[in-house]
Specification:
Radius of gyration: 21 Å
Strand order of the largest sheet: 3-2-1-4-5-6-7
Low-confidence stretches: none
Shape: globular
Strand content: 5-15%
Number of strands: 11
CATH architecture of the largest domain: 3-Layer(aba) Sandwich
CATH topology of the largest domain: Rossmann fold
């Protein structure tokens, strides 16, 4: 069996966590996976890819693991209307089972967030033509606090909400839908019937960091905060993470504390994030931003940073699931 895995990119985030934790479990439950192919729009984190490849090879020594990048499969630029002929042909080539595989499954993540509408509209047809199953794993929705995406649908030639909904939740004999939130299941079943299922995010046995790791994390944080108490926001610097409220709450509840954020921002949101940083500096409010961006491999782990913090801040306006809630609870940190 050939198992293909799609995501827009390999950057840190909740979707990547689900892929990394869920893929070994999925391979245990599927019969005869002998090839895993990752189809991604952007490959940046070689360390993560190498670690996941090694884990899959330890689990199944004979499995072949490949990583394929095509920028047309990533976040689409405004006005992007269709995939090129070359990109479509690459998808066709990979979707057809290899000579050693009896059948193919494409496990596609978060296409429902609407970051690449031409790809979302093309994949059901391409999978049908190739005889491949398409499993759509829904983490977020483009209409859930993201109505700016409607402009992208219009630019892609979609004229109505009904047409956009049909493209977001396509139906067909080779299609399956999986929701990470149980509350989304009734809606999915209305659109897709029995082809829709709920699959909670995979949570392996949690290993709390050792005391030595926590001590190291405290020293690491102290070097970046001037020794202030740390209120940690273990999220990327995105607008929907609502970090302005996290900063205000920190000032209100713990005026001497420093708000520390972990992940990087995105190019389209960098200007807004920079305005927040400038405002915090002007007010003299302690803020240590994006401390893990670009150095995840050499810095303390997020659980160690959580354990070394006074409190964990989670102020997101929208989350597909929200793993930090469970991690903070497992570490006994106030949220």
């Amino acid at each position: 069996m050939q198992l293909l895995v799609f995501h827009y990119h390999d950057r840190p985030g909740g979707v990547r966590e689900v892929i990394g934790r869920g893929l070994p479990l999925l391979m245990e439950r599927l019969d005869g996976v002998n090839e895993v192919v990752f189809l991604m729009g952007e490959l940046r984190d070689a360390g993560w890819r190498e670690a996941l490849t090694a884990r899959l090879k330890r689990q199944s020594p004979s499995v072949t693991v490949r990583w394929v990048e095509d920028r047309e499969w990533g976040y689409a630029e405004p006005g992007f209307r269709s995939l090129s002929a070359d990109s479509v042909q690459r998808l066709r080539d990979w979707l057809h089972p290899s000579p050693t595989a009896r059948w193919s499954v494409l496990w596609a993540h978060n296409l429902s967030v609407g970051r690449n509408i031409p790809l979302l509209r093309a994949l059901p047809r391409l999978c049908k033509d190739a005889g491949a199953e398409l499993w759509l794993h829904h983490h977020d929705w483009w209409w859930d606090g993201r109505w700016q995406r409607w402009r992208d649908w219009l630019a892609a030639g979609v004229a109505s909400l009904e047409e956009a909904l049909a493209a977001t939740v396509p139906v067909g004999p080779q299609l399956r839908h999986y929701a990470v939130n149980l509350a989304d299941l009734p809606f999915l079943q209305t659109a897709a019937g029995d082809a829709a299922r709920w699959v909670g995010n995979p949570l392996p046995a949690f290993r709390p960091p050792q005391e030595a790791e926590v001590r190291e994390a405290r020293l690491w944080l102290a070097a970046r905060t001037g020794g202030r108490p740390v209120w940690l926001a273990p999220v990327r610097a995105l607008r929907r993470k609502n970090l302005a409220e996290a900063l205000l709450l920190t000032r209100r509840l713990a005026p001497d504390a420093c708000l520390v954020t972990t992940g990087g921002s995105s190019a389209e949101e960098a200007a807004g994030w920079n305005r927040l940083r400038t405002a915090a500096t002007a007010k003299g409010w302690p803020l240590a931003p994006q401390v893990l961006a670009g150095m995840e491999a050499s810095a303390p782990s997020v659980p160690a940073l959580m354990a070394a913090s006074e409190a964990v801040m989670i102020t997101s306006l929208q989350e597909g699931f929200g793993l930090p809630w469970l991690e903070a609870a497992a570490l006994g940190r106030p949220v």
